[in-house]
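To fix ideas, we give here one paired sequence and structure record:
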Amino acid sequence: MNATAAFLRGLTKFESIVAVTALFISAAALLADIFAREFFKVGLFGSFRVAVYATAASALVGFCVCISHGSHLRISFLDNAAPAAFRPLVQRIGHLISFSICVFFAYWAIFYVRQTAELGETDPSLQVVVWPMQLFMPWMFISGAVRYFAYFMFPMIAAQDEEIVQ
């Protein structure tokens, strides 16, 4: 259990660094375009596309960071439907269901990225293949699945949902 908790903390730290770096890249691309327009009277080619890809990467990785902090969006209207004695069991079942959903979407995300790679799809403006940027989708779902499975196995390491803790 301690090794799992340590692994998840390290994974969260790594994913946080990736998300912040992606946001930095997005901001830098937009600022570079602004400066190019101001000083050279012409925009920086591809800067908006780079900013969009970087922002999307940050958002997708942010999904994992939100899970790790218990701050992700979730359905909460049934929180008090089960008696207090059964809530730990209900939360555990919820982790198992969330794990299953993430595995399902990870499969389809991998399928999608493989199809994109096999077709050689490229970004129309930058003329670069897009599948490497799409790898954030399977990563997001696989990382989420790993977390939810760990939370199912070891409920005491699961982050408390911020809405419940209040």
